[in-house]
Amino acid sequence: MLEQWFDVEYVMELAEKYKALGPFVGILLPMIESFLPFLPLFVFVFANAGAYGLLKGFVLSWMGTVIGSYAVFLLVRKYGRNKILKRLTTHPKVEKLIFWVERNGFGPLFLLICFPFTPSALVNFVAGLSDLKRTHYLFILMMGKFVMIFTISFIGYDLRALFTQPLRTALLGLFIALLWFVGKRVEAHLNAKVEKDFNELTKK
After folding, report:
1. How many Å apart are CA 144 and CA 155, to the nearest integer?
2. Which of 77, 111, 147, 200 has the lowest CB atom count within 10 Å?
3. What is the tens place of the pLDDT at every residue in 187-200?
4. pLDDT of 176-188, one tens digit each?
5. SS3 category, 105
6. Would you say the C-alpha torsion 122, 128, 132, 137 has a positive or negative sign?
7. Could you tell me the CA-to-CA distances from 148 to 41, 55, 145, 198 in Å, in that order?
């Protein structure tokens, strides 16, 4: 059953079937992914772009993922002091990330959210535990997800062409691999910066 959600054609059929309900399904699926990050966001974005068209599909996916991500952030912000989450907060890696988010703010978070292979659930969680202002994080989410969702929507809006035009498929595959590589390089650089900044602070 779960593997169906990794099938673009299945999700497109689902979006087409429930298209009569209006934009609800198109917003709901990306929103659910924010709470269940093992689900494939890119499949939902592809399906929305294919079913609703590039512009409308992009807007629905963007709204859904921003609403879901911000809801996770607010839930962590509200309940982050309970016993279970408090234990996670004291984990060295999480502690370093919280410190770094509070110190660096907009730029690095925006970059991380822009890339589709960034673990956004972790970013939402850490941001919720930090002292970052609610309005600031909402703005970062809206801008970062705008870039990410539009990129994925543009890639996937004509899914059938991926199966009929091998050259285009190859080029898109290369582009996705490049996005993954650059994203991982940025992530590694930021992680190194986290470690350096945190060590410098603890030595003082």
Report:
1. 17
2. 200
3. 566 666 655 655 55
4. 677 667 666 765 6
5. coil
6. positive
7. 11, 14, 5, 29
> CB atoms < 10 A from the CB of 40, how many?
15
Q: What is the pTM of this model?
A: 0.72
Burial class of residue 127 (count of CB atoms within 10 Å of its CB; 0-12, 13-18, 19+):
buried
Quote the tokens at residue 48.
């929305």
Give the list of residues 6+ apart from residue 43 with CB closer than 8 angstroms, or none: 5, 6, 7, 8, 11
Cα 124 to Cα 60: distance, rounded to the nearest angstrom: 20
b/e sequence 74-113, b meaning 16+ C-beta within 10 Å: eebbeebeeeebeeebeeeebebbbbbbeeebeebbebbb
Other beta carbons within 10 Å of 49 = 29
